Amino acid sequence: MWDERYAGEEFIYGTEPNTFLAENSHYLSSPVLSIAEGEGRNAVYLASRGLEVLGVDGSAVGLAKAAKLAASRGLNIRTEVTDLATYTPADQYFNGVVSISAHLPGEIRKALHQRVEKCLRPGGIILLEAYAKAQINRDTGGPKDVDMLMSKAALEAEFPNCEPIMAREIERQVNEGRFHNGLASVVQFIARKKA
Ligand SMILES: C[S@@+](CC[C@H](N)C(=O)[O-])C[C@H]1O[C@@H](n2cnc3c(N)ncnc32)[C@H](O)[C@@H]1O
User: Fold this and answer.
1) Residue 156 belongs to domain with CATH number
2) β strands within 24-178, DSSP E
3) Ligand 1 probe mutation, 34, 57, 61, most atoms within 8 A of CB
4) Which of 87, 127, 147, 190 sits CB 3.0–4.6 Å from 82 for a disulfide?
């Protein structure tokens, strides 16, 4: 499905970074893991800020475009095609993990978040934005399956060893390509791994 969606020349979510990430990237330091990276707009932005980034995604087509986007800007990112249902990053390796619109079935997401928490070094940051449960009533983007949408309470429970810096559900305009377009209910979560 994603390879097909990414098959054309167009960058489906644009080439500009997610706004929440751009506003909060000062929390991040290298190395950074970006899960569900897609076509690279977020990893390329982080690389432009001097960060060392590994972008992982299930779509080889998306990640090929990501590498091309980075090269077109004279930047370097690492990419890895992987299934997030099983992906297991090295323990205590990353100083930051970025997750933007990584909507997965709830059970897969919960297990992934355990592994994500483990891969953070003490003091490392998880920065996540996703559509909230209330987004099910809107047609401005996101999966049409409430199980794949997130909540502040669920994220706090899924990262028990991280101290929240910001955890909120808000409505905001998301204008990031034609599939994410309009007033949206989102959950925003930034938390620091405890020592
Ligand atoms: C909504 S897109 C977001 C892309 C990117 N984070 C962005 O903000 O532009 C969701 C991404 O999740 C990826 N994805 C979905 N399920 C996956 C899985 N099980 N394993 C790996 N990637 C997956 C898709 O390939 C797609 O690139």
Assistant:
1) 3.40.50.150
2) 32-35, 53-57, 78-81, 94-100, 120-131, 162-175
3) 57
4) 87
Token readout for 123 is 């003091």
Atom 12 in ligand 1: residue holding the nearest Cα: 36
Domain that holds residue 136: 2-193
- Element (H or E) spanning 184, and its range? strand 181-193
Predicted confidence (pLDDT) per residue in 96-117, tens digit = 999 999 999 999 999 999 999 9
pTM for this model (two decimals): 0.98
Distance 44 CA to ligand 1 centre (A): 16
The contacts of residue 67 (CB under 8 Å, 6+ apart) are 40, 77, 79
Work out how many domains the chain is built from and give that number.
Answer: 1
Ligand 1 center to residue 66 CA distance, Å? Answer: 13
**Which amino acid, 83?**
D
DSSP, collapsed to helix, strand or coil, labels residue 167 as strand
CB under 8 Å to 121, separation ≥6 — which residues?
A: 92, 93, 94, 95, 193
1-45 pLDDT, tens digit each: 999 999 999 999 999 999 999 999 999 999 999 999 999 999 999
